[in-house]
Amino acid sequence: MANFDETFDFVVVGSGGGSMCAGLVCRQAGKSVVVLEKTDLLGGSTARAGGVMWIPNNRFMKRDGVEDSFEKGATYLDAVVGDHDDTPGATKERRHAYLREAPEMLEFLIGKGIQFNRAPYWPDYYTNSPGASEAGRTVLADLFDINQLGEWKQKLRPNKFQMAAPIVEAMSLPLIRVSWKARWQATKVVLRTIGAKLTGKHLVTAGAALQARMLQAAVREGVDLRLHSPVREVIVEGNRCVGILTEKDGKPWRIKANLGVLLNAGGFAHNQEMRDLYIPHTRKEWTHAAPGDTGDMHKEMIRIGAWMAQMDEFVGNQMALPPTDPDPAGMQGNICKPHAFLIDQTGLRYMNEGGSYMLFCQGQLERHKTVPAVPSWLIVDSQFMRRYMLCETMPGTAKPKIWYESKFLHRGDTLEELAAACNIPPENLRATTEKFNGFARAGKDTEFGRGDSAYDRFLGDYTHGPNDTLGTVEEGPFYAVQIVPGDVGTYGGVVCNSNAQVMKPDRSVIEGLYATGTTTAGVMGRAYPGAGCSIGPSFTWGFVAAKHAAGLGNSGV
Ligand SMILES: Cc1cc2nc3c(=O)[nH]c(=O)nc-3n(C[C@H](O)[C@H](O)[C@H](O)COP(=O)(O)OP(=O)(O)OC[C@H]3O[C@@H](n4cnc5c(N)ncnc54)[C@H](O)[C@@H]3O)c2cc1C
């Protein structure tokens, strides 16, 4: 029997998406709870993120008359996730539990004063599948004045996106050169930012708004939140998790958990050794995940013999690596705009550049098995450069000199010159371009179906026709940028049941041990059905785990 230094009813490892949600459930049930975060900042990748959650059949859809139901959500998940032997975290039972519990979780948080709304239009990522919602099922936290956090303000992981704009509004800003609507949005953002400054507010958006609102509620309700508290071990006696080993003031510190331990410690995006083993041809420098994502609890679950699955999966996100930015640049919005296409290193297009970012990177790695495609090349022309942003630079502006000097951005007056600069067979680049231009003129990509779904078109330019996402690449000079399969996190881990309880390979559970988020083999399997399919599940399974541990409910069927 371990000797303990301290006791709580519930212990949460990591301060990711589901952590503070679980903490609030425990406090509602009158239980003591501690959240242990190993870094010097709370919030995890969730605070850095867009912060949106995919919640089918939510109250805001009902309010706005957007049709949805449990059945419609189930049809959609059956179609795009489905049942596969290698995705045991995504069984029908778990998918259905998610559809029941996610709207409940949202209601619970609203009851705790967290303000949410729906994204007015954000199509599901597989819009052509049965049960998909074109208007979308995505929910996001309202902007938040982070000054309300007082001393806790400095303890929250910041978000790179610093504008006072809901993420959906911000997503229209890249169209500023071509759309009056985008210009009006930009004006609103500037006015809102000035207004906030004048009234002494510091408005944050996206994941920062979500996690700041959660932090405010958690502090108010008495959740014990600790930084610099890396969890080293999960303590299991017999078949029950009884506590954890962490550190206090740099010394070992054992905490007993009367009711359970929830693992919400993120994935292993920053662990190159694990990447090389499970997701080869990817690099930790290409991730946007928070630095604490080093797979600590994955290794711990392997050590105690828990069931691990889909460790080779990640939430891929097409990235470029501008030398002017310490972080990789997300490129989904660029690649799907008109006057742009993607090719492998032999100069051939090989997939629809639209669809979910996860599907895109799966396609890139799949291509790389037979043809060099990591990195691939984004090819654009001068029409693109005039109209759209490139890696956060404004349309029509001169690009930084260092981009050319460092060979981040290549330029050629002709396609042949560009091909030579990038070491691509010129005849292939010429043939690919002519074929693509034919599709663009016809408004129909008969080879890969780019622009056939509402989601593809959402990524394009609504002012452009006949297809929002297809435009000719014909006006020199031409430009090329390398695209790598980056990510926003890994997507495999420990397998849990519908109560978020950690399972062993024989499908029995380890009593008192729960997991959520990217520490787990996710409920969406190898798919990314819509915006918010990482944070939505992380919050929801945290909610489910805490309810189960506190004796408030059982979500198994
Ligand atoms: C830029 C960006 C935008 C994104 N946008 C969205 C979006 O809008 N919607 C969406 O669904 N997904 C989005 N994603 C993906 C999503 O943010 C992550 O997959 C998700 O936040 C992971 O949440 P989590 O709860 O699993 O863990 P995290 O939020 O990553 O938190 C894990 C925490 O555990 C801590 N930790 C790790 N090991 C230990 C240990 N041993 N002891 C104690 N603590 C530990 C870490 O330091 C970290 O703070 C985005 C990601 C990024 C980077």
Summarize the structure.
Helices cover 32% and strands 19% of the residues. By secondary structure, the protein is an alpha+beta fold. Helix 1 (17-28) runs parallel beside helix 8 and helix 1 packs parallel to helix 18 (535-549).
Structure characterization notes:
This protein has 18 helices and 21 strands. With about 550 residues, the protein is of the alpha+beta class. The protein has a domain of about 170 residues: Succinate dehydrogenase/fumarate reductase flavoprotein, catalytic domain (Flavocytochrome C3, Chain A, domain 1, Alpha-Beta Complex), CATH 3.90.700.10. The strands form five sheets. Strands 1, 2, 8, 9, 10, 11, 20 and 21 form an eight-stranded mixed sheet that branches. Strands 13, 14, 15, 16, 17 and 18 form a six-stranded antiparallel sheet that branches. Strands 3-5-4 form a three-stranded antiparallel sheet. The mean pLDDT is about 95. The site of flavin-adenine dinucleotide has 40 residues, from helix 1, helix 2, strand 18 and helix 18.
